[in-house]
Amino acid sequence: MNQPAIELKRLTRYFGSKPVVRDLDFDVPVGKVTALLGLNGAGKTTTIRMLMGLLSPTRGRAITLGQDAAEMTPQTRSRIGYLVEGHYLYGSMRVSDCQQFQRAGNEQWDSRLFDDVVRHFAIDPKSRVSNLSRGQRAGVALALVLAPGPELLVLDDPALGLDPVSRRALNETLVQYAGDGERTVLLSTHLLDDVERIADRVAVMIGGRLKVDTTMEDFGSRITTYAARSERLDADQLAAVPGLVEARRLADRWQLTLADEDDESRAALKRLNFVDLEQTESSFADAVLSYLTRERSDGSFFTQSLVSMKTQDGNVASGVTR
Ligand SMILES: Nc1ncnc2c1ncn2[C@@H]1O[C@H](COP(=O)(O)OP(=O)(O)OP(=O)(O)O)[C@@H](O)[C@H]1O
Q1: How many C-beta neighbours within 10 Å does residue 2 have?
Q2: 65-94 confidence digits (pLDDT tens)
Q3: Is the CB of 268 under 6 A from ligand 1?
Q4: What is the top-level taxon of the source organism (predicted)?
Q5: Which residue ranges make up each domain of the chain?
Q6: Average pLDDT over residues 130-139
Q7: Alpha carbon of 46 to ligand 1 centroid (Å)
Q8: Could you give the angle at the alpha carbon of 45 between the alpha carbons of 16 and 83, nearest 5°?
Q9: Ligand 1: which of 21, 39, 45 to mutate, judged by most atoms within 8 Å of the beta carbon?
Q10: Atom of ligand 1 nearest to the CA of 49
Q11: 6-207: what fold?
């Protein structure tokens, strides 16, 4: 089997006494698009900075393209395209100058790819960067990162603040880039619909820990949702349903999300005497949100996470715990 593009081994980072990334064991396979998800502060950027060799782990290791990220050589770094939040570009330069500037000394530079990406974002190469929209600046940044032909692309929230048209251009560019099955993308994002369109694998971090690590299909197939009515029902009764990830009360109906549903969970649901209990369609975004929404609040809303999911090969324990 191919060595993974990235291997995290018990990767841990504290800031002061606060653990921000905790015991991450995680592989990013070659040739796939892996989406790294998690609420603000979950530890995604910190993880990415460690696997890029920009921040040292407190414990554990990140191995990127076969090399310990803490000792990454310029040669290895040149095989990685890294796009961070914010898209840093010189405002006074024209887009075509940006290309000239970056291309210098880079023999692998693919001008056609650069021009294609720029065109895809509807950018005039003669425009000055300062006159571009936020989405267009993202397009230039992406073109600059892709043109050297990196075998690994690491993107930290690349679609932050982009409008739907720019997001589509970004998604299409990434799908095309990764389409040869040899190049690898690791992408942190909050845009769940985009993840559904472009990712092969999904990893979810909660509170610095990896809670889900599986394929998109596997994730989707393990989630079942129900709608039901019930006059009298409380959190304790719901908590007794095995596999329940989330229960939300919307007007007079409950929306229930279960992971790895089995006969036991179905029987437990039946015992609650719901009226009109019916299975409903749920999107990938709904399924992920169920994992991420873990707060409890007043009686109109109740969430509990108590599930353990495993990857298809059963190797990596993943899922959601309290
Ligand atoms: N240099 C630092 N010093 C102290 N705390 C930090 C530092 N960098 C990050 N943190 C803290 O670590 C936690 C995780 O931050 P991180 O940026 O990794 O999260 P994230 O999942 O990328 O969030 P977002 O989705 O908002 O980008 C946050 O609580 C953040 O405040």
Answers
A1: 8
A2: 999 999 999 999 999 999 986 667 788 899
A3: no
A4: Bacteria
A5: 6-207, 220-309
A6: 89
A7: 6
A8: 140
A9: 45
A10: 18
A11: Rossmann fold (3.40.50)
